[in-house]
Amino acid sequence: MIRRKRSGVQQKSAMAEELLYYLPGAYFMTRQIVCRFLLCLILPISVASAFGGELNWLGHWKGEDKREVLVHEIKKNYEFLHPGTTIKLTFDVDVEGEGSYYKMKVARRIVEMIETGKIEWDLFSCDVAIYNHVADLLGDPQWGRKYLVDFGEVPGFLASQKDVVVGSPFYRDKKGGIYPGPYIEGILFNLWYTRQAAAAIGIQVKERGMSVEEFLSYAARVADYNKRHGTRFPFLYLNSFNRIEALFEYLFKSSFIDPQPVIEETYDEKKAAAFLATLEIFEKLASYQPVVNEGWRSLDWRECEKDFLAGNGLFLPGGTYMYSHFRGNAAASADNGIPVEMPHVVQPNGQVGLFTNTFAVLKASPNRQAAIELSMMWAEPRVAEKWVEYTKNPTGIRGNLVEHAFDSDSSDVYERFLVDMERQYIVLPMRNFRAPTYAFGKDTPVGAEEFRNSLVLILEGKLGAREYYRSILTRMGRQ
User: Fold this and answer.
1) Where are the domains of the chain?
2) pLDDT digits (tens, 9 = 90+) for 384-395
3) At what angle do helices 66-81 and 368-376 cross, to 10 degrees?
4) pTM over 0.85
5) What's the rounded Cα separation, in Å, for the pair 190 and 319?
């Protein structure tokens, strides 16, 4: 049940929406005029831009269930509030270019816009991965400060974001010292499993508070099943863009009781020892082959998710964003996927996750102000509430809810998972570093892609835990 406490302006807005809904269809044109008049009376003056023409928006979340629905709702609302303005909406997954990875294609086009001054998109997809790819291509991690609009200077932005986003320098520092846009998307990393696969193996998965010993025992049970049936059923189901490093980071963090040291990007010997111990957990898993599915390196994430939901692996490491993936990609079997809290070593010590802006605006955009206004629509409280309702994911935007959007006793396993994780760990810091800077410092020579691939090599039994650990120390000059 959702309980709202609305301001006077919000109550008037709701009344205008009800008029829009109930006025007879025969008077459609009159209804449009009346509602525009009402909305003009109640909406902040900052919304009423004088811009008229075409805005080019490179959207995100195509084919991802109600995430895409929300993109189209934002587009429709903006065009309604700005008569004479048309939004040309395309999606990042459809961008043409070299290679198969769409986020790298987008990154190359952003670099092209910066270098040529020819602005193709006024508002464009620019999450953590895309930002980092652009940084690599330009050789400049601070490129955001030079070329992107800093929404920290946009009136109303800072007040619209939750304290977890603007209360520390973490998110600003990750994007060149700026806020590139509203932090609408929140992600918690977790495991997924299907009850069908668990039943076939004869396992009852512990969905909350799983220990690493229990996790290893499940791997042993899968190995035993394979031996008895002559099968090669994988314990973990991966694709070419897996997030196995998030599982590692969670295990590493849970080796400590104090949450602060594990979010500091500094080196110390205790953290280095815990890093090795976590590598050795992966090495223990390697004794239960096949730990991962064959052919994962060339497996597209869409096919991976379909295969997994059909019961072809026990656990899928990923995040809460997969709720929307499943429904957009494999609707008939989407409900098979059940979210599970990641296993801990000593005790859970905060979530591995993040909040991220999804879109950004170049300073050089000829339609800069209109693009900023379009982006700021994602910072509205009602959009934040819709995001949580539609996606079953957290958000970095403040909402109007007095209580959480979902009841703790909800029969919906996805709503209940989000409530449980937020309530249990709300006082603990949430981070996702991708590369192991949390163990070796910001200057670690280990990049995110190398780290991810090395972890899978350990799971496959092709790389030793101590061998990899020593190689990192050698490169750092500490061996």
Assistant:
1) 44-184+357-402, 188-354+425-476
2) 999 999 999 999
3) 130
4) yes
5) 5
